[in-house]
Amino acid sequence: MDTKPISNVRSFCWAGPDRRWLVAGERYYDALIVIDVEARQIVGSFNTNAEYACSLAGSPDGRWLSAAYANGRIQLMQLSESPTGDVHGEVKLRFAAHKYSEEENRPTTIHWLDSRRFLSAAADGSMKVWDREDLEPRVPPSSRPLLGAYWSSDDCIVRYFAGETYDKSPEFTTIDDVEPFMPDVLSYMSADGRIAAGGLRKLGVLDVDRGQWLTCFKSSFSHNYVTLSPDSRYFAAANADELAVWHTEDDWRTHQLVRSWNFGSYCDPVFADHCSTLIVHPWDQGGVLELDIASGQVNKRIPLAIDGNCTLSPDGRLLAVSFGGGIRVLDRASDEMVFEAHDISLPGGFQFFDDGRILVSGHLNGKVRAWHLPTSHPLGQLTARPELRRKAHFFELSPAGTGLIVWARRIDGQRAPIILGKVDSFRR
Q1: Number of structural domains the chain divides into
Q2: Domain assignment of residue 41, given as a range
């Protein structure tokens, strides 16, 4: 066979159509080599961004390649062939399949049962069957820092990257005379599929489904927090010292500054009461404030020095906050505390589901918990990943209700999305 020498081969397998590709992993190298046996030449080489694979396996339909590593992790790669015969591999999923033990650093092995399911086995004797279409949890791998991940209306995942733009067709476009910028921070998605973007003295509104900037405009300050109202007609931006709200009547073709304050917020501003109220947490105002947007006056002062984000129930009646290392849910009308949880890792973000009856909370240790508010009972733990040791703070349910995006901070400080399938029940 007329190929360059391949040394220190750790693992290899047959893959591709008619099993005519031989995929080999070289020890001490991140790349995988693809050899076309019939053509007797190397037709591909792609980097897996991981340590050398100790087990490789190709799916029966030839479209997928799985790689297992000594630390218990598995990568799932999709194979494709160009018209010129070059073979490419794209890492689609990367996840921890088995517990890693430094005392017993032995390989994890992998075997495909059919074109959807594969089996993994670890040194501790554990065996698991995985369905590539229903893996949980899943982490989209990327060497680029991610700014945000959102569900489109067709239940696809749209991701926004730092340093680049958009990874879903159609390409990221602009309208009219809008001049886009590279955002530093993105908001939750509004009910009609829009997100707010903030950068260095710039703000913008993006349409997720269309991949389009609706507006970009200058601001007098840079922003740590940006928020769109549920109907996308109001835009709030804040940092530690300044806070402002803008409004549009024509889908952001034009806009106007409604109100600004000479204090900021240490959490994402929250719109309430049909966008007439803004809930913020200034550092020096003695707690959470409910601001009247029209007059700029303080409607209510809640004496809670929260240490994370706050969120409203869908009907605007309940406010969930992180306070004293625990969770408190308040009735806004009566100021009555309707739920409280103590002795848990510091909460960093919340989201209400099921018409406000279920509260999902993200914690400093990377865990995500669910609570049934009418009974005050914990429903269990959604996920806990050892490498995500910062606050999980962002939760978005897919339009079909079958997927959930959870954002957390990795130990290296970068944001990482966890994508959960089947969220119809919570696992204890």
Answers
A1: 1
A2: 9-131
